[in-house]
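Handout, tutorial session.
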Amino acid sequence: MKKILTAIAGILCVGMMAGCSPNTSGWESYQINNVIEYKAPPEWECQDSWYENTHVLQNGESSMSIFYTEAEDGQQALEAYVDQIKNAEPEENIQVGEWKEEKSQKISGKDALHYTQNWVYNGTDCKFDLYGFAYDGGYVVINSQTPYDDSKNEVQEQIDDIISTVELAQ
């Protein structure tokens, strides 16, 4: 009986560990200037942005941006960036709701802040997520914009999976 319980516990443990990281088989690998590495499914088209050190990912009406900024004090610079974004005037075609601080999480082994905001963008209800973490030499920000529609759950799961692959390059 003890052997059976040990075997079941081992299977459950392996199953739980496998469920924690996405299956990235067939995903594209990307790197931003030897600082950030991440993977994304092929349906997420990656483009270099006109902003320095930034990639933009697009999947239908959903989008993400991943970027880093060099700074002597990464945490202080990140907090200043977040304050700037939270206090920015929205563009004409965007109506915004209140910012909500979400539970922080680990990204690339670092404690990452997470804020959300509801938007109406060109008449479409959207959710905007902002994640950020500091590292020795700067900070990383990941933004996502997702319309509230039937595909939101699947798209949000893909966004979460992409975020789970973000690593600082060694």
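The second record follows below. Compare its token runs with those of the first.
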Amino acid sequence: MDKKQMISFGMIIVFIAVVIIFFRDSETDITMEVDIDDERIDYIDVINLREENEQLKKEIENLDEEYESSYFDLMRIIVDSDLVYELFPGQEATTIIYREVSEDQYTLFYKDKHGYTLNVNTRNAEPQVYFHFIEQAEYNEMSWSGVASGDSYTIGGFITDERISKVQLLQNNNFTRESTVVELDYHFDVWYIVNDGEVPTEDFSTFMIQGLDENNRVLWEEAFEGAIWGIW
């Protein structure tokens, strides 16, 4: 092979090498662009999926609220009718002592073979009140007991002294909460207080339950010590 042929052959090899390198770099750039585009597409898809997920959550929450509201309205209608007795397995032994129904709340107080029970349900509110009364009250007295349900605590009892119009709870000599009194037009009234997280529940507090008349005179009181209202 003469000198000219060697030079020509060398130039051909260099040219082929340059072409190979060029196309290899081009493929890498194309691949990178595709990868980048794919990443952009994936990122956009993720954003869209997140938005769709949030929308679905809102729709589910709305459905839950609609269901709860519809269920509440159904129960409100039942409580306000004779169908209320169908709610109790032993309906023959159940006596409805008091019921009150409004647009956003229904109250039901009844006696069955287990004793007295108060049920107060409010639309879109937690906690609901389901309280079984344990301690009966002597004449011209008050009584109290307590029950825990989930994160809420309910304390309540009977009022047989017709002069008592309200009940309050003190914790470490500080006013904590005034009760709700349900006037039954019966030979007693009932009262209850729900601790829904607003009432402090520090350990080993001193508590005082007081029954007051309309002039805020204390007609009945009882103190106790303990943790979490001292009764659970």
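Points raised in discussion: Residues 3-79 form the longest helix (77 residues).
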